[in-house]
Design goal:
Radius of gyration: 35 Å
Organism: Gracilibacillus oryzae
Shape: elongated
Strand content: 5-15%
Number of domains: 2
Protein name: Coat protein
Distance between the termini: 77 Å
Largest sheet: 2 strands, antiparallel
InterPro entries: YlbD_coat (IPR025953)
Oligomer: single chain
Order of helices and strands: EEHHHHHH
Length: about 150
């Protein structure tokens, strides 16, 4: 909405179609908004170029391709952070002792087996069934390398 001042009254009027089109253009082209906010281009000049040249003109490409030094610095910082994170993960993976991991998996398998046995005993106790149930099937029946 456009505001016009008449004396001390502020009257609202509908926006012209060209202004509505320009707003839609700006919403779909955030790179132009960044250029306006960084004072690379004036909003009025940008609007006039839009009216005269249209939104398909090659002039708008310059705003898409341009990156500020701040953007470059942020990209470099992110790349360095990503490299450091990746290096840390690779160092952790390289320092893993596979025999130790295998032992922990075996221990966890034994603990799960014990939990299954306790649950089975509890089921037998609550059902009042004193006869031997079928043997407990090992949920981790894969063979561990010795």
């Amino acid at each position: 909405m456009k505001l016009e001042e008449k004396g001390s009254d502020i009257v609202t009027k509908e926006l012209s179609p060209s202004i509505r089109q320009f707003k839609v253009f700006l919403q779909s082209n955030p790179h132009v908004i960044k250029a306006i906010r960084s004072k690379e281009v004036d909003l009025q000049d940008c609007y006039e170029q839009f009216i005269l040249l249209g939104e398909e003109d090659h002039i708008w490409e310059q705003y898409k391709e341009r990156k500020t030094n701040k953007d470059d610095e942020e990209d470099e910082k992110k790349a360095r952070t990503d490299d450091k994170t990746f290096s840390k993960w690779m160092a952790k993976i390289n320092s893993l002792d596979l025999n130790s991991v295998e032992k922990h998996i075996h221990d966890l398998n034994g603990a799960i087996d014990q939990v299954v046995k306790v649950i089975d005993q509890y089921k037998q106790f609550t059902s009042g069934n004193n006869e031997q149930s079928s043997p407990v099937r090992d949920p981790f029946s894969f063979r561990m390398r010795d």
